[in-house]
Write a structure and sequence with these properties.
about 250 residues, alpha/beta, Rossmann fold, six-stranded mixed β-sheet, five-stranded parallel β-sheet, 10 helices, about 20% strand
Length: about 250
């Protein structure tokens, strides 16, 4: 039996993962559980934020999607201010920033050996600095966690959260609908690669997971949600590609 890996990230991120897994001989399939979108209101807010970037001490991007949407809505002729730092919760977001021209030495992120890539493991690097009176911008989607913002506020920073995109229901192709049906009919032959608790909640509100449904979660919190929502077997791995590949190899 060849294990079928379901890449559930939004379309904007799924391609990179799909290609990387396929290149390593794995049977990977795209089945996005969320759709990332923006509107005239979010684009206008992003454009306004660009005009004030020079006054910021740092800009935190919560995900690659935050990077893509922020730079996509930049006013014509805008450029990242020289020396302005960006914060990223993990290597995927850092790579997205570098692809947009932000120098690696200006990106703050968790260490390479961090057990998980998230705000909790980013904050130690940030907490060493004095933040009183300094301006911080957090670029994120609708909703989102306030943990890091609360730490910055407690340290005296002036924090603004910017909604650069929204999450919604995916638009599946006929092939993706067929893939979902196969995963529900033959759960032991499929492995859901999960990177969002919200995506899990969306899925389980619409379909009943069969006994034996298996998942690989890229964070302990996501794994907990997966178990609570009905996945029978949940493995936890790091968010990076190599961690995922190592876990898949160990599963045979």
């Amino acid at each position: 039996m060849t294990l079928q890996v379901l890449v559930t990230r939004p379309v904007e991120q799924a391609g990179e993962w799909f290609d990387a897994l396929r290149a390593r001989g794995l049977a990977a399939h795209s089945l996005p559980l969320l759709r990332i979108s923006s509107g005239t209101d979010t684009d206008a807010a992003v454009a306004q934020a660009w005009r004030g970037l020079a006054q910021r001490a740092i800009v935190m991007f919560v995900s690659p999607n935050a990077v893509h949407r922020f730079f996509a809505a930049a006013p014509a002729g805008s450029s990242w201010p020289p020396g302005l730092r960006a914060a990223a919760p993990g290597p995927g977001t850092a790579r997205a920033l570098q692809a947009r021209g932000v120098a690696a030495e200006h990106i703050v992120q968790p260490p390479d050996d961090a057990p998980t890539f998230d705000s909790e493991h980013l904050w130690p690097a940030l907490s060493l600095e004095p933040w009183a009176g300094r301006s911080v911008l957090i670029v994120r989607g609708d909703g989102g966690r306030d943990w890091l913002a609360e730490r910055w506020v407690a340290a005296g920073a002036q924090v603004q959260a910017l909604e650069a995109y929204r999450r919604g229901a995916p638009c599946w192709s006929a092939e993706e609908v067929s893939r979902l049906a196969a995963a529900l009919q033959r759960p032991r032959e499929h492995l859901w690669l999960l990177s969002s608790s919200q995506a899990i909640t969306w899925l389980t509100a619409r379909v009943a997971l069969p006994p034996g449904a298996r998942a690989l979660a890229t964070h302990p919190t996501i794994a907990r949600t997966a178990r609570e929502q009905g996945f029978s077997e949940v493995h936890v791995t790091g968010a990076g590609l190599q961690s995922v590949l190592s876990c898949l190899k160990s599963m045979g």
